[in-house]
Amino acid sequence: MPRTPRLIVIGGGSGGLAAARAARFRGAEVTLVQEGPVGGECTFTGCVPSKTLLSAGAAFVRAMDRVGETVSRVAAAESAEVLKREGIDVVTGRGRVSGPGEVTVTAAGNGGERRRLSGEAIVLSPGSRAVIPPVRGIENVEVLTNENLFDLRERPRSVVILGGGPIGCEMALALVTKGVEVTVVEALPRLLSRDDPEASEVARRCLERSGVVVRTGTVADQVRAGGDGVEVVLGHGGDHREDHQEDMVAERLLVAVGRRPGHDPAELTAAGIDVTATGWIAVDPTLETSVRGVYAVGDAVGGPQFTHAAAAMARLAVDNALRVGFARARRLRWDPSSVPWVTFLTPEIAQVGLTEADAAVRYPGARVARLPIAEVDRAVTAGSEDGFIKLIAVPRRGLGWAGGGRLVGATIVADRAGEMISEVVLAMTAGMFAGRLAQAIHPYPTWSVGLQMAATQFLGTYAGRTARPARAVQGP
């Protein structure tokens, strides 16, 4: 009888959980090493609490109570006890790779007692942490990040948020709807800089309509404690001269400017695992590190930092590590091109693949089907007409524009954009003709009918609209 392989997973966040469960599904023995409660950032300080706060009522204290209740409920479904019932051995402690197929676990208590584990393969999923920017004086004030924001039990009168990315924008909307005065400070010219510029403009309108003050092209030069809270010295357009500065005072300062590795790069290099210049774990296209049999997934590799991306990477890494499924014949390669992301504003902003500007540069023949969401009857009935659908397609090799070509990206701005984007992801993943979205029968009146209407533009003129050449759009 062949020996049952053993997989060791370090990190109990979304990537680690997915890896452990995928390995058990494949019949492997699994040991999951986690320093704190199983669930990681997504459950305790990320997706679950942030989306709960966004959807909770206006009363701040009750909203925070609901956050705690929701986190507890989700965490209960992925606790160490639940995993053990699924056949996954959970070891509490700090795990580090000490050699090929070998992990050393240092317990938090018992005087740092050490335990050695061995297995055929290892999956690393140490996650990431919030970046504290090198702003002068910031070390002297109490800073909020996603890691401690949800511990608040008293509503702050005002908050300055450094960072206009997804976390900054979502928390701005969540807080302003709870009666907090919010200012978002973003150094770049627009919010959500990774997204389509048109989507950035909708995000700005959403925040300003809700009462958030948005300051783009503005940097924080200095932070200092003041009698009424925190004083933030702002510089405009990158100009740091005193006559171009402005003082802003708020009760609290929330930082959402990016992520840094959740691991110690030096510890990994000591084990022979290469890291990038910025400290992320270096992996090849199969997600294997420089040490044979050691794989890394999730935020730690510096790619798309989303729960669903970490889970997808974990499943692929497990198949490669165990040489099962399709990986039995040839190891699978990670392709992030069809990883979607959603910023949960009002309306939601969903993106997958290339933006129009990126497609115009990469594929000179790319075409864009654009549909204002106001032309979708469901949006009219809901009274939510701010938004649009953009589908980006390119010719298929050998077939040209037959069937509408193939999709390489999409931006959807609508109340249900987060649900709608999955249909595009499926089309991209399966390599479908773009025209299939037009041919599929969509129930009326739903938001997804807009995808059908937009995709029809790749097949001809519909309601006066035809797919047009992609443009390298600059700015909003």
Describe what you observe in this structure.
- It is a single chain.
- By secondary structure, this protein is α/β, with parallel strands linked by helices.
- The chain folds into three domains: 6-39 and 78-128 and 260-337, FAD/NAD(P)-binding domain (3-Layer(bba) Sandwich); 138-257, FAD/NAD(P)-binding domain (3-Layer(bba) Sandwich); 347-469, Enolase-like, domain 1 (2-Layer Sandwich).
- 28% of the residues lie in helices and 26% in strands.
- It has helices at residues 14-25, 40-44, 47-55, 60-76, 80-85, 166-176, 197-210, 265-270, 307-322, 356-362, 377-382, 417-430, 436-439, 449-455; strands at residues 6-10, 29-34, 88-92, 94-99, 102-106, 114-118, 121-124, 128-130, 143-144, 158-162, 181-186, 213-216, 218-226, 229-236, 245-250, 252-255, 259-261, 294-296, 341-343, 348-353, 367-372, 388-394, 406-414, 468-469.
- The strands form six sheets. A six-stranded antiparallel beta sheet has the order 19-20-23-22-21-24, sandwiched between helices.
- α3 (47-55) packs antiparallel against α4 (60-76) and α3 runs parallel beside α6.
- The termini are far apart.
- 46% of the residues are buried.
